Amino acid sequence: MSKQRVKWGTYFMNIAQEVATRSTCDRKHVGAVIVRDKTILSTGYNGSIKGLPHCDEAGCEMVEGHCVRTTHAEANAIVQAAKNGVKIELSEIYVTASPCYNCFKLIANAGIKIIHYNELYRDERIFERAKEVGIKLVSLED
For 92-136, how does the pLDDT look when each residue is reduced to its tens digit (9 = 90+)? Predict the structure, then answer.
């Protein structure tokens, strides 16, 4: 008897969850995977500016209840693609938590068309904006 293969969405979210294990802010471990045509284009996790101390080394830098020491996983995945010259327009992103409003704006401006998320994060403004700009939001919550 052969083992049943996981669906593509589960596969990419599993990878995003593994990417999240690299996160360095203990307040929230988030991973992101950008995909087009079932091919991984870029990944990212939340962590500090390259070369600077991470939250797990220096502590969180809190402003209005948010740690601002870290760059979010989605932003890091987009930056990683840009650094490597990888076109992400018309792609999809798998994120372990739905994007904050600032990351949603980056995703929209990068031309990503579908956001798959595993858990709903705080900001619900993304739902109205997604409708307005034609981005599909897909909840993969259990």
Answer: 999 999 999 999 999 999 999 999 999 988 788 999 999 999 999
- The pair of three-digit structure tokens given for residue 114, joined into one six-digit string: 């579908």
The pLDDT-based confidence of 1 (bands split at 50, 70, 90) is low
Residue with tokens 């739905």: 98
Catalytic annotation present for 64 = no
Pick the catalytic residue from 61, 74, 89, 132. Answer: 74
Judged by phi (left if over 0) then psi (alpha if -120 to 50, else beta), residue 129 lies in alpha
Cα dihedral 25, 85, 11, 48, rounded to 10, equals 0
Question: What span, in angstroms and rounded, lies between the C-alpha atoms of 41 and 92?
Answer: 10
